[in-house]
Amino acid sequence: MNSAFASNDLSILMLSSAGQLDRRPDSRDGGISTNMSKRKSFDVEGLGHANPIPAVSRIGNIVATGGVSGTDTSTGKIPDDVAAQCARMFANLRTILGAAGATPEDVIRVTVWIARPEIRAEVNKEWVVMFPDPHSRPARHTMFYDHFAGSMVVQCEAWAVIDIAAGHV
To answer: Burial code of 84-118, b = ≥16 C-beta within 10 A, e = fewer?
Structure first.
């Protein structure tokens, strides 16, 4: 058995952005690594949650949003119009990603929840506006959800990986 992977060894082998293995102490042994990233949470004015949940969190170059709705940030209200909700949702996603230093080009996965099947067509219209290159779109999964609050009919969340090597911080 390779001693680097012995069961009593409480280290984690991490793959660095340069593709190198980096040995870091496991938190179970109380070890602290100055190289290990810490989570940062970001709130975005007009897009807060009623619960103590940030709009977006980031560890190193990984970004994850909370739920992103089609709230109109100037009024704080959800538009009644489905097309307007979808357009605002993607605009809000761009704003939320930006708070953590990410852009739509960094997005690797989006999950969308819709109240009714016909909403998918409106999501698709805004999807191709935000991600116009058919050869460089993030993965997406769309699911039906029937417990939205008020007039909300669409919501999404996204994961992004920031290209630190390209100078994005």
So the answer is: ebbbbbbbbbebbbebbbbebebbeebbbbbbeee
Q: Give the contacts of 160 (CB within 8 A, at least 6 positions apart).
A: 62, 63, 64, 97, 100, 102, 103, 106, 107, 108
Q: Is the pTM of this model over 0.70?
A: yes
* Cβ neighbours for 94, distance < 8 A, ≥ 6 positions apart: 103, 104, 130
Q: Determine contact, residues 156/70, Cβ cutoff 8 Å.
A: no
Tens of each residue's pLDDT in the chain, 169 residues: 444 434 343 333 344 444 444 444 443 344 444 445 599 999 998 888 778 889 999 999 999 999 999 999 999 999 999 999 999 999 999 999 999 999 999 999 999 999 999 999 999 999 999 999 999 999 999 999 999 999 999 999 999 999 877 665 5
Counting runs of H as helices and runs of E as strands, what totals does the chain give?
Answer: 2, 8
Residue 72 DSSP symbol: B
Question: For the chain, what's the residue count?
Answer: 169
Domains of the chain: 1-36 (no CATH), 40-166 (3.30.1330.40)
